[in-house]
Every structure is written in C-alpha cells, then in structure tokens.
Automatic annotation (TrEMBL):
Keyword annotations: Ribonucleoprotein, Ribosomal protein
Signal sequence, renumbered to the chain: none
The name this protein goes by in its record: 60S ribosomal protein L32
Organism of derivation: Canis lupus familiaris (Dog)
GO molecular function, one term: structural constituent of ribosome
Entry keyword annotation includes Ribosomal protein: yes
Length: 132
C-alpha cells in the first residue's frame, strides 16, 4: 500500500530554535530559566545592548502556513477514541493522529486496529503490551 503524503509540504523555516531565557537566570538558582520581560530603567537586555540575551519579538514568529507542522508535513491531531479517528479520515492529507497519553490500553488497541485499514494515519505506532 502506498504511504500517505501531505497535500502540500512547504519548507519549514525555524527562525530560532533556542529557548529565550531570563536575564541572569544562569547566575542565580532562585531565578527560573523561563522567559520574563525585564522592565528596569537601566536594564541592558531591555535596552538591547550588544552581546546581551535576546528578547522575544514579533520577528521570530513562524510562518502561518508552517506553524505547528511536523517535519513530515502533517499537523498533529490528538485522538482519545475511535470516533475521533473517524473524523480525521476526512482530512488525512493535512493531519496525522497522535494517541493521547491518558487513553487506556483497551481503547489504544481499538484505535490501532482501526488505523490498520488506513496506514500512516498515526504519528507514532505504539507498542501495545500484551498481558498474559
């Protein structure tokens, strides 16, 4: 059977892959790494001095056409049951399924069996552990 390919697969350009970190978070343990805009009057990051930590700005935004797109060209769709997988069959050229983490093994097996009729619909093939 032929593998499914996305309808369109534009080149995905990531303008920045590194995380934006908080100013001086590497110096102190009490300061978390997640980004927080500095608002001090003398702050060198806010004033954009050369060699300082970069601030997030609108220029780092992803292209709307490739935002949330996987390298395969598909977008993820979270599936909790077989019924949601049926909905995905109508737009299987642009979305692929990902089984939610809180789905039971019984429902997981049912989703995988349903997916066997349409290969390449699931993003990751799970290994269903048999109990015996």
């Amino acid at each position: 059977m032929v593998a499914l390919r996305p309808l369109v697969k534009p080149k995905i350009i990531k303008k920045r892959t590194k995380k934006f970190i908080w100013h001086q978070s590497d110096r102190y343990v009490k300061i978390k790494h997640n980004w927080w805009k500095r608002r001090g009057i003398d702050n060198r990051v806010r004033r954009r001095f050369k060699g300082q930590i970069l601030m997030p700005s609108i220029g780092y935004r992803s292209n709307k056409k490739t935002k949330h797109m996987l390298p395969s060209g598909f977008r993820k769709f979270l599936v909790h049951n077989v019924k949601e997988l049926e909905v995905l069959l109508m737009c299987n050229k642009s979305y692929c399924a990902e089984i939610a983490h809180n789905v039971s093994s019984k429902n997981r097996k049912a989703i995988v069996e349903r997916e066997l009729l349409y290969p390449d619909l699931l993003k990751d093939k799970p290994e269903c552990h048999e109990e015996g």
